[in-house]
Design a protein that fits this description.
This protein is mainly α. About 65% of the residues lie in helices and about 0% in strands. About 30% of the residues are buried.
Length: about 130
């Protein structure tokens, strides 16, 4: 079977999700980077929000869109509506659109694209619940 609807990493996580729920409604977790890589990328970001956003942009420019999503979440998932949080959310929307082009399962594509739409209108999946 080709991974057109789902993907192999869904199957593995489905065994865990069976008891804990399907998705945390964060597009970053649809196809996460390896935990060690994500932790290393986040480690850099323990300073200023501007540096976090710059690191996410650099990762994306290097073709590491999934890692960029992990990094930008440090600011984009923050509370409030200050200009840096808004910038990070718009960057996350852009990264979601890029990630949708990288993956094959059309369900994931749709979730990334709809997440981008919500981020661009300053809403989240939590607002729809």
């Amino acid at each position: 079977m080709t991974p057109n609807y789902g993907s192999p990493d869904y199957i593995v996580r489905d065994l865990i999700r069976e008891k804990s729920g399907w998705w945390d409604r964060n597009p970053t977790s649809l196809h996460p980077a390896h935990p060690d890589e994500a932790a290393q990328a986040r480690f850099y970001a323990l300073s200023e929000p501007e540096k976090i956003i710059a690191k996410a942009k650099a990762l994306a420019a290097d073709g590491e869109v999934q890692l960029a999503l992990h990094v930008v979440d440090l600011v984009a998932e923050g509370p409030g509506a200050n200009s840096l949080v808004q910038e990070a959310r718009l960057l996350k929307a852009e990264l979601c659109r890029l990630r949708a082009k990288e993956i094959r399962p059309y369900v994931s594509k749709a979730l990334y694209l709809s997440s981008a739409d919500l981020l661009e209108t300053d809403r989240s999946w939590k607002d729809l619940a």
